[in-house]
């Protein structure tokens, strides 16, 4: 991936549709579009998907509560971490409403999801989760709008 190699995508984004499609991931893709950044959204499985990971300059992994419930997401993560190791691909983890520690130690929903995985893949998923959680990344809480009640607003305005 050095020299005059032309990447097909600037960024490959791995995310759980259920958790982040209409929130964080949706906003991320909109920002990429505004800046003319070629982003692959990881919507299809199969060998084509693995090629898209290989031909992306950067991989962004958006860990969320249900990320590990998708075997496709976990397979993407294994491929992403392989590309990091083999081709020095840049990987940016985003911890969206989960802590890096939960991902690193496979706690909570992550642990439960791994119990349902095929035995031949679970170990590689665990290694990829741990390795990705050890990378420098972003730890975000979902945005929750703060709304004051009308009673609070009235007393605030009147100086009471």
List the helices and strands and how they pair.
Layout: E1 9-15, H1 17-20, H2 24-34, E2 39-40, H3 47-54, E3 56-63, H4 71-87, E4 90-96, H5 100-104, H6 109-115, H7 119-133, E5 138-140, H8 150-158
Parallel strand pairs: 1-2, 1-3, 3-4, 4-5
Helix pairs in contact: 3-4, 4-7
Give structural notes.
InterPro entries: TIR_dom (IPR000157), Toll_tir_struct_dom_sf (IPR035897). With 160 residues, the chain is of the alpha/beta class. The longest helix has 17 residues. It starts with 8 loop residues before the first strand and ends with a helix. It contains eight helices and five strands. It has a single domain, classed as Toll/interleukin-1 receptor homology (TIR) domain (Rossmann fold, 3-Layer(aba) Sandwich). A five-stranded parallel sheet has the order 2-1-3-4-5, sandwiched between helices.
Brief digest:
It is built from eight helices and five strands; from the N terminus they run βααβαβαβαααβα. With 160 residues, the protein is α/β, with parallel strands linked by helices.
């Amino acid at each position: 991936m050095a020299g005059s190699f032309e990447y097909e995508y600037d960024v490959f984004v791995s995310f759980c549709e259920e958790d982040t499609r209409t929130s964080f991931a949706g906003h991320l893709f909109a920002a990429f579009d505004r800046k003319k950044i070629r982003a692959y959204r990881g919507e299809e499985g199969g060998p084509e998907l693995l090629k898209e990971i290989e031909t992306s300059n950067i991989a962004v992994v958006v860990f969320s509560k249900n990320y590990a419930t998708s075997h496709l997401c976990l397979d993407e993560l294994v491929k992403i971490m392989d590309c990091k190791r083999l081709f020095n691909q840049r990987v940016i983890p985003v911890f969206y409403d989960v802590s890096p520690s939960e991902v690193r130690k496979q706690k909570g929903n992550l642990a439960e999801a791994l119990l349902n995985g095929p035995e031949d893949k679970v170990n590689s998923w665990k290694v990829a989760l741990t390795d990705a959680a050890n990378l420098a990344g972003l730890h975000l809480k979902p945005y929750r709008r703060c709304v004051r009640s009308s009673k609070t607003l009235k007393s605030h305005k009147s100086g009471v």
